[in-house]
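Problem 12. The chain below contains 349 residues. Write out its predicted structure in token notation.
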Amino acid sequence: MNMTTPIKPARLRGDRVTMAHGGGGKAMRDLIEEIFTDVFLPPGSEDQARLTSDALREPGAQLAFTTDSFVVSPPEFPGGDIGKIAVCGTVNDLAVGGAKPLWLSAAFIIEEGCEFALLRRIVASMQAEADKAGVRIVTGDTKVVERGAADKVFVTTSGVGVIPAGRDMRADNIRPGDVALVNGVLGDHGATILAARGDMALSTDIQSDCQSLNALIEAVLQAAPNTRAARDATRGGVASALNEMADAAGVQIEIDETTLPLRPEVKGVCEVLGLDPLYLANEGTLVLFVPEDEADAALAAMKSVEAGSNATAIGTAKAGHPGRVTMKTLFGGQRLVDTLVGEQLPRIC
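Solution.
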């Protein structure tokens, strides 16, 4: 007997979101069920997620909680989309604090006229990245706004994780002599978004570095258990992350321009447009500090994971001028790497 999986009848009419899909009636229920809960949640889900994990029972374990909103334009780009960024960004915000990410929520602000096909691709991308990162999207919300009140779709995600007992990854743990490591090349996401917007005649094969980093951090902590702190270098790039860490720890951080991992294409885009790649956004790159005697082990652990294949040491913490970040240039001089004022590029993530 030939057994086939029954095909669910389509509930949505047309190919775009209308204001009726935010009105609380059948059209809204059809949108939520066919686009979102059929992918994210089991049948019979309530308005709240009810969560349990053995990790919560460990004596001394702490809950970690974070939230972020994503308004990237365009919502799809080489290497990712707004949904993938939403998952990766939230997972990474938990992971850089030493937490093991477990659960996410996802809320969508959808513009009237947004294509159902775009929403389906975004939701599928989110679920695929959540599966890869080992987290579950357990609750969410949708709102529909009038045409022009949003740019197709905005996403807000919150995440909950557990910090195992004994872990203490905070920027104020950084000490003079600690080594700064990055897991990959810098500026790919910012350069990708700039090219994807089509505002300028830029032809490039660069893809966003969008990826979850929790597996990489777990590998580092196994090899270098005294890892001091980590930050994901998103808006404002590596320069902003380093300035935040230097200020929190009261140390000077000195990086070496010759060690910075940059693609020639990113350098070229920056030279043409007068941008500094240190301030370009990343969505899968972090900077972390480890004691000098654990730096080699941490670097090897990073390189053993796909997300860290281009890992390298870029500098050290010093006692010098607290809160200052400096860079040894290619020509042997030094320059100040200050906090970004304003935004090099709008709507990056």
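Discussion. The first helix runs from residue 26 to 40. Students who got a different answer should revisit the alignment rule from Section 12.3.
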